[in-house]
Amino acid sequence: MTIDEFNALDGDGATALVLTAAAVPTWASAVVARRPYPDVAALLAAADSLAEHWAQPEVDAALADHPRIGERPHGSGAAADHSRREQAAVGTAPDTVRERVATGNRAYEERFGRIFLIRAAGRSPREILNELERRLTNDPATEVAEVADQLREITRLRLAGAFA
């Protein structure tokens, strides 16, 4: 898709596309409302700016659409396709790493009450495991901020990918 095609979409179509990057309806509506964009860089800058203050409600909304790290996404559609691509490396990890990630996922969910989220694209399974284990030591407020940062990174990559 080109930026001109995005700018020409009706509101529902543009919002649906933006929601594939992050399931945060208020953010997606705000991104769409700022159209037209002169180029993809301007769109990404606006999306980043609008996501800068994501907090617990936005994180919760977006996480509802994410699978656990190391698990295959269920369903179909753009969001599930993104997750499959982003987490592909974890499936190739040694059994010991996959087992530690699964154990860490359970500990994380017990501690923080939500799934562990990390920008998996570009990271090795070992890096993901190390980050999971490090973040288990975060206090809840620090972790919400880290999750929001990771979510913004994922969102930026996904949105940029829609225009590649």
Descriptive labels:
164 residues, 9 helices, elongated
Folded structure, characterized:
The protein has 164 residues and is mostly helical. It has one domain: UraD-like, CATH 1.10.3330. 63% of the residues lie in helices and 0% in strands. The N and C termini lie close together (7 Å). Residues 7-160 form the Oxo-4-hydroxy-4-carboxy-5-ureidoimidazoline decarboxylase domain. It comes from Miniimonas arenae. Keywords: Decarboxylase, Lyase, Purine metabolism. Pathway: Purine metabolism; urate degradation; (S)-allantoin from urate: step 3/3.
Radius of gyration: 16 Å
Fourth-level CATH superfamily:
Oxo-4-hydroxy-4-carboxy-5-ureidoimidazoline decarboxylase
Determine the CATH topology.
UraD-like
Q: What is the residue-averaged pLDDT?
A: 88
Task: Name the assembly state.
Answer: single chain
Strand content: under 5%
- The top-level CATH class is Mainly Alpha
Query: Total strand count, please?
Result: 0
- Return residue spans where pLDDT drops below 50 for at least 5 consecutive residues: none
Number of helical segments with 4 or more residues: 9
Largest sheet, if any? none
H/E element string? Answer: HHHHHHHHH
- Work out the helicity level: 55-70%
The geometry reads as elongated
Tell me the domain tally.
1
CATH architecture: Orthogonal Bundle
